[in-house]
């Protein structure tokens, strides 16, 4: 959640990055120093010195915050540096939460230990779901409990002697964030497939494809014909539609509904491909009737193309969701 302000904060931290660079420090020095301070914080938690642990966590957070500023100021931004920073962050999170588990186990406070373990699992899964999403090409930064929020929650709990309530918040929200990322990735994969249809459609629609083989001209595999009176897709329009798709992947349906229902979209060579995305956006907003109207119109216009069964299946699915069993049949 706080990651959306990263670019704003970079402007404020740049002078500090340059100052650290003049001290001949390297980004990896700060990264490893942050891990060392996190180990000290974990040790403080184990021995029950929670306020000391809270102050140490602040210091560890500052090291982690400024290593990126130093890397940019010194021109040492590298893929390995980003990899190392991420790995060290995971170690730091784990050792601190394990220290809290040991604290409550020694007290003994079984509920606190269970909460700390739940927070640990949630923290790991927030990071893991993001890493797995990125491995399949999906940028997944959604959720309310990313690393900065988790660190702030622990610091507040430690300094205010409210560690157990802080763990309740962390355990619940971290695991909710992991679930949010799972749902987001599933939706983004589906949306990416739809976007691929749009991109592939641009090739024949704009006359960029080579000659078709005789087999490819069979009517069951042919794309829908370009509608008469279709307008060319301008670069500006492509950018607008691409931005709408990006917002759609982030869960904001309004740009797609606004742009893909416009006159420009309806008269474009790829209007029917855009229609599938529009129908999905309308369905997400709960307007199942409008979504069904869009896909039914696509099926009616191109009964002999591969779009027809896809559109009819989507229309039946929407009818079923709306409780219209006859329409679903």
Shape: elongated
Given this structure, which CATH class of the largest domain is correct? Mainly Alpha
| Rg over alpha carbons | 26 Å
Give the H and E element order: HHHHHHHHHHHHHH
Largest sheet: none
Helix content: over 70%
Which CATH-level-2 architecture of the largest domain? Up-down Bundle
Spatial separation of the terminal alpha carbons: 43 Å
How much of the polypeptide forms β-strand, as a percent range?
under 5%
Counting DSSP E segments of at least 2 residues, the number of strands comes to 0
Please give the domain count: 2
Q: Residue-averaged pLDDT, rounded?
A: 79
Predict the CATH topology of the largest domain: Four Helix Bundle (Hemerythrin (Met), subunit A)
Number of DSSP helical runs: 14
Q: At the fourth CATH level, what is the homologous superfamily of the largest domain?
A: CDP-alcohol phosphotransferase transmembrane (TM) domain
Alpha-beta classification? mainly alpha
- Which segments are poorly predicted (pLDDT under 50) over 5 or more consecutive residues? 202-230
What is the gist of this entry?
With 329 residues, the chain is mainly alpha-helical.
Explain how this protein is built.
This protein is an all-alpha fold. It folds into two domains: 2-186, CDP-alcohol phosphotransferase transmembrane (TM) domain (Four Helix Bundle (Hemerythrin (Met), subunit A), Up-down Bundle), CATH 1.20.120; 211-328, Serine Threonine Protein Phosphatase 5, Tetratricopeptide repeat (Alpha Horseshoe). It contains 14 helices and no strands. It is elongated. The two termini are 43 Å apart.
């Amino acid at each position: 959640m706080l990651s959306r302000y990263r670019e704003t904060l970079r402007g404020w931290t740049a002078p500090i990055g340059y100052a650290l660079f003049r001290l001949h420090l390297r980004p990896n020095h700060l990264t490893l120093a942050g891990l060392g301070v996190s180990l000290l914080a974990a040790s403080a938690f184990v021995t029950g010195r929670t306020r000391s642990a809270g102050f140490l966590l602040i210091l560890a957070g500052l090291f982690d915050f400024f290593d990126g500023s130093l890397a940019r100021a010194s021109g040492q931004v590298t893929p390995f540096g980003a990899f190392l920073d991420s790995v060290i962050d995971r170690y730091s999170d784990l050792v601190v939460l394990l220290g809290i588990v040991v604290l409550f186990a020694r007290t003994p406070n079984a509920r606190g230990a269970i909460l700390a373990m739940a927070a640990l699992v949630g923290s790991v899964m927030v990071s893991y779901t993001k890493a797995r999403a990125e491995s399949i090409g999906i940028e997944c930064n959604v959720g309310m409990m990313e690393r900065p929020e988790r660190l702030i929650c622990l610091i507040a709990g430690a300094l205010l002697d409210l560690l157990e309530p802080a763990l309740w918040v962390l355990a619940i929200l971290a695991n909710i964030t992991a679930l949010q990322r799972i749902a987001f990735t599933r939706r983004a994969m589906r949306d990416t497939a739809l976007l691929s249809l749009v991109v592939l459609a641009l090739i024949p629609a704009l006359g960029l494809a080579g000659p078709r083989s005789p087999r490819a001209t069979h009517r069951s595999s042919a794309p829908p014909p370009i509608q008469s009176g279709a307008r060319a897709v301008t670069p500006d329009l492509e950018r607008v539609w691409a931005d709408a798709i990006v917002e759609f992947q982030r869960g904001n349906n309004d740009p797609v509904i606004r742009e893909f229902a416009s006159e420009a979209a309806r008269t474009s060579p790829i209007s029917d491909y855009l229609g599938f995305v529009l129908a999905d956006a309308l369905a997400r907003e709960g307007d199942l009737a409008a979504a069904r109207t869009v896909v039914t119109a696509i099926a009616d216009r191109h009964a002999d193309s591969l779009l027809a069964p896809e559109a009819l299946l989507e229309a039946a699915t929407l009818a079923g969701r709306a409780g219209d069993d006859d329409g679903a049949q």
